[in-house]
Specification:
- This protein is mainly alpha-helical.
- The protein has a domain of 59 residues: Helix Hairpins (Orthogonal Bundle), CATH 1.10.287.
- The chain is built from four helices and no strands.
- The N and C termini lie far apart (36 Å).
Length: 89
């Protein structure tokens, strides 16, 4: 198990449906949000890193699709997740 896997399981366990859950939309959105935050900080220091910028855009798109899915499936869960992560507002 890599260092990143250990950190993500402990840091995002509140978003997991069960102990070994890593595939739920809530968990994935939380992980993507953390990766977006890290890449944004990286790009502040490395303005010409186009490869990372492209990766950031891909992750933002994936998170957006998952948020749309969660909104359609469970609006209450969507609202609580947005509030906990501090997104959109």
């Amino acid at each position: 198990m890599s260092k990143n896997e250990i950190n993500s399981k402990s840091k995002f366990s509140q978003f997991a449906q069960s102990e070994n859950d890593t595939g739920s939309a809530q968990f994935q959105i939380a992980v993507f949000s953390e990766r977006i935050k890290n890449l944004t900080e990286h790009l502040k220091n490395h303005k010409n890193d186009q490869h990372s910028r492209k990766g950031l855009m891909v992750i933002v798109g994936k998170r957006k699709r998952l948020l749309n899915y969660l909104f359609k499936k469970n609006k209450e869960e969507y609202k609580s997740l947005i509030k906990e992560l501090g997104l959109r507002g």
